[in-house]
Amino acid sequence: MSKKWTNEKLPGALHYVTGNVDKRRQIFSNQRNCIAFLEELQSLKNKREARLICFVVMPDHFHLIVNPRDGDIQTWIAELKSLSAKRLVQANANGFFRKPDGENEVWQESFKSLALWSGWLIWQKINYIHQNPLRANLVKSAVNYRWSSFKSFYGHECEELLSVDHEWWYSDDVAKLKEAMKRRAGGASLPDMRK
Asked: Can you give the residue range of the structural domain that contains 64?
């Protein structure tokens, strides 16, 4: 049985990711927690070279689209969750994340990841991410939700903490993706990479 696309190291692929807070607690209703998470996200983007396409931080989960340079989405997200958990535990020193056994638990163990292979699917996920606060009735317009990349993505002025990359791929990604797709029987067509 072959590995799922989501389990493969795929340099050049954009990945749509969802991560949930343990017990779906609404920790991101607190501005301090949002800032701590986003600082770790931006730091990791630079440390483990990745293109951050878009994101939203909802009260109890996050969505993002990212292109890790090495294609290793599992390690990239594991590191994001680990680093942000440490920061969130520090920011909430009252023991908010402490379990009865004394351990801290911020995130649900797993996360959902989907490699995006078509232009249509990429744009569907971008729109889903930016519209998420509206569907949750948190704001009346996506531009008004502070904890998303909407303003940066569409070229409005925004703070550095909320910025995203406007170049989605690295120069050699097309060749890497074509090679990955050759290895797969009946692979999907490549997305339009002229963005």
From this structure: 10-182
